[in-house]
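Chain A, query sequence.
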Amino acid sequence: MKKLKVASLLLCAGLFLAGCGDGGGSPEGPESEGKSSISWMAMLHTASPPSGDVTQKLEEYTGVEIDFTWVPDASKTERLNAALASNSLADIVSLTEINNTTVRSSLASGMFWDVEPYLEEFPNLAEISEDRLESSRIDGRIYGVPFLKPIARYGVLVRKDWLDNLGLDVPSTLEELAAVAQAFTEDDPDGNGADDTVGFVERDESFNVGFRSLSGYFGADNWFTITDDDEVMPSFMQPEYKEAMEWFRNIYDNGWMNSDFAVMAKNDQKNYIVQGRGGIVLSGLQEVRNYIDDAAGTDEEHMEWVLINDIVHENVERRILSDTNGGMGGWLAIPKNNVETEEDLRVVLKFINDLMDEEPFTLMTQGIEGVHYEIDDEGVYVRLDDTKWQQEVQPFSSSRPSELVTVFPSSNPYVNLANEKIRENEEFAVINPAQSLNSETYDRSWSSLIEGISDAYYQYMTGEIEIDGFDTAIETFLRNGGQQIIDEFTEDYRSQQ
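Chain A, predicted structure.
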């Protein structure tokens, strides 16, 4: 086995080269000759690509050489759009921007293999649930193996020690949550005598992430909704959505939220929280672990959190909007120009199938036993060196074909609690009803059209416009192609009833 050769640059230099393995993957599935190496355009959500021997171990297990092109998260849209436009791709392309116009148009164009006819040939791929397959269809076809994720990971994170300091109960309604936000801002929850805390800590992805999750509690649906007359309409046109906007703007106007949320990046949001400056977060439930870990050794290392996944509002039944497109986080798409034959397609599919076995999943999650972790007497995976894990293992986390292979027991009670509540969320998850519907206008124009609505959301939240200004943005959306999207989705939906 040749050692992994790390290039000095990411995309500019091209690939991270590794040698060919002996083939230790899943014995099931069709045997095939042909490709002995697989190139992979993968997303990078960490500061740098992985170092160390995890890639080599994955090669040994799967029996193929893996050539990674790591696409940094900060530039993924531009890099991916350029690669798709020029058809300069790899054997596997991680397409994680579900609603990206270029991505959807490329998928619908026939650039990638429809993998559905082949899934049954491989044991792990054959087990993909029908609801996740349905969520991954574009125009009735599955143009890549879907990334498998929990259906709904979001909830509300609240500083428990601050609640205790102020004698407040854990909130269970939006009204109670607003009262907590006010108290966290005005009543010195950390007891330092300074006016230096707020309730909510929101960030620049509010429209797509935090607020979108919040709007679900009011009864707004997930990106689109089906009206009583079977019309497929964007959720931002629902009265419930505008009610949520009004509620959240009141939070902002009262100063119960960080004033710079519209320009605050995710890492800055985390630092703000870790510094003890805010106590309510609309986020993935598993994020608490990151706050706890980063606060270690600081003045906030004593912080405690409560994880809430059952917030309700008035007569709206308990619900949570899926943040993973119904448990589908994108596609591992296989371009026909790179993988030209069915024989080579089966090699690539077997590789993806093998990565869904427990051993490679463990490698991409925990690392190598004795190097990155050890297992204690309770069966808990204990990390040996957090910095080493971050450098050598964490970059692989966003490339795991499935996050559902197994759940590792943790010594961190917050991790176990988050996993429990995420599983509980599945019963109450609301999925985008238009995800598998067909609209050429949506595929072509959604990314640009939604920018106008997003801009209007931030303008409304910060007081630059009132709700009539938001309605004007909706009118512009409808006039410039939004109405056509509604019509096309509606026609497709009604034809299936």
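The first strand starts at residue 37 and ends at 44. Residues 154-321 form a domain with the D-Maltodextrin-Binding Protein; domain 2 fold (CATH 3.40.190.10).
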